[in-house]
């Protein structure tokens, strides 16, 4: 494959993707969701490496299930048990796996910007499974897919993302994807958790409850030490989706969360499986979305 072909098949982010490209992925995911046979070996004989330089449970398992349902040979790589611990660079590790003959790589990284550099030097398609606070495109795609299941169209949909937007790759990917699809996006966050580089209006938590979709972000409790949040209790009181607040949602509105969930912090435990919650359907939708993205990388 030429460099141009590899870059077209890679998925580094949703920024720059147009409506037609996103629609194509969502439609193909719908195809895979409808298949009664769990395993469809369209990628038999193709090798896919899951290269997670940052810990993950849900995302890694979701990718692995998607790969195996497509019949691919799966290689799982964990940085904690690799030569990276011995000082080998991320590039050298990825280049080594490319040299061994992998056909595509799924990569999760802590530092933002490194994935773009890798994509310019590696000659197989790469799929971003989360890089720093930059993007998490497959999470946003499964979120868009979940919204489309509920509302049919994303055009004109009022979506509010609540929480630590500043450090959230999920918020950024959703912003780019939803905007491309014609949705209206707003943020709700404390001053210390705002992403000022994005041209997005900020609204109050009371205003957020009027949206069609209320997406709660995980409170990164480890940031308490930096003074960003005084306490989990205070955050819940000011920005959490409590049972009392959820009672004000419109009957058609849905609650979303990228998980993992801090129950009784950003969202009350009773709301996680509430009739208006789509948190577990989101997780289910990750598999067909990732099947579509992996197939796109290897079949076009």
**Overall mean pLDDT:** 93
| Side-by-side strand order of the widest sheet | 2-1-3-4
Distance between the termini: 12 Å
**Rounded radius of gyration (Å):** 19 Å
Estimate the global geometry from the Cα principal axes.
globular
- What order do the SSEs take from the amino end to the carboxyl end, as H and E? HHEHEHEHEHEHEHEHHEH
Q: Unreliable runs, pLDDT <50, ≥5 residues?
A: none
Key descriptive features of the protein:
300 residues, alpha/beta, Rossmann fold, 2 domains, four-stranded parallel β-sheet, 39% helix, globular, pyrimidine biosynthesis, Asp/Orn_carbamoylTrfase
Write the layout of secondary structure elements.
Elements: H1 3-9, H2 19-34, E1 47-52, H3 58-69, E2 73-78, H4 90-99, E3 104-109, H5 114-121, E4 126-131, H6 137-151, E5 158-162, H7 169-180, E6 184-188, H8 205-208, E7 213-216, H9 232-239, H10 243-246, E8 254-256, H11 279-299
Parallel strand pairs: 1-2, 1-3, 3-4, 5-6, 5-7, 7-8
Summarize the structure.
This protein is an alpha/beta fold.
Describe the structure.
The chain is of the alpha/beta class. The chain folds into two domains: 3-136 and 284-299, Aspartate/ornithine carbamoyltransferase (Rossmann fold, 3-Layer(aba) Sandwich), CATH 3.40.50; 138-278, 3-Layer(aba) Sandwich (Rossmann fold), CATH 3.40.50.1370. 39% of the residues lie in helices and 14% in strands. The protein has eleven helices and eight strands. It has helices at residues 3-9, 19-34, 58-69, 90-99, 114-121, 137-151, 169-180, 205-208, 232-239, 243-246, 279-299, and strands spanning 47-52, 73-78, 104-109, 126-131, 158-162, 184-188, 213-216, 254-256. The chain has a four-stranded parallel β-sheet with strand order 2-1-3-4, sandwiched between helices. Strands 6-5-7-8 form a four-stranded parallel β-sheet, with helices on one face. Helix 2 (19-34) packs across helix 6, helix 2 (19-34) packs across helix 11 and helix 6 crosses helix 11. It starts with a helix and ends with a helix. 42% of the residues are buried. The mean pLDDT is 93.
């Amino acid at each position: 494959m030429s460099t141009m072909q590899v870059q077209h098949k890679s998925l580094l982010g949703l920024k720059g993707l147009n409506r037609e490209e996103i629609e194509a992925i969502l439609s193909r995911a719908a195809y895979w969701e409808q298949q009664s046979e769990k395993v469809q070996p369209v990628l038999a004989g193709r090798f896919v490496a899951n290269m997670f330089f940052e810990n993950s449970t849900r995302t890694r398992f979701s990718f692995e299930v998607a790969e195996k349902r497509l019949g691919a040979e799966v290689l799982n790589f964990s940085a904690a048990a690799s030569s990276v611990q011995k000082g080998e660079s991320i590039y050298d590790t990825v280049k080594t796996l490319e040299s061994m003959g992998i056909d595509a790589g799924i990569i999760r990284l802590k530092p933002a910007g490194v994935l773009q550099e890798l994509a310019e030097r590696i000659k197989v398609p790469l799929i971003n499974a989360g890089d720093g606070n930059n993007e998490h495109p497959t999470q946003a795609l499964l979120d868009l897919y979940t919204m489309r299941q509920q509302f049919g169209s994303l055009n004109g949909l009022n979506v509010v993302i609540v929480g630590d937007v500043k450090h959230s790759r999920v918020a950024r990917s959703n912003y780019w994807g939803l905007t491309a699809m014609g949705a209206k996006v707003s943020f709700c966050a404390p001053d210390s958790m705002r992403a000022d580089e994005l041209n997005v209006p900020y609204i109050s938590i009371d205003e957020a409850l009027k949206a069609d979709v209320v997406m709660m972000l995980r409170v990164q409790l480890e940031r308490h030490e930096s003074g960003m949040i005084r306490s989990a209790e205070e955050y819940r009181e000011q920005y959490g989706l409590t049972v009392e607040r959820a009672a004000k949602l419109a009957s058609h509105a849905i609650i979303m969360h990228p998980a993992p969930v801090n129950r009784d912090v950003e969202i009350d435990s009773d709301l996680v499986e509430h009739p208006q919650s789509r948190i577990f359907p989101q997780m289910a939708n990750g598999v067909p979305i990732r099947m579509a993205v992996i197939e796109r990388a290897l079949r076009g």
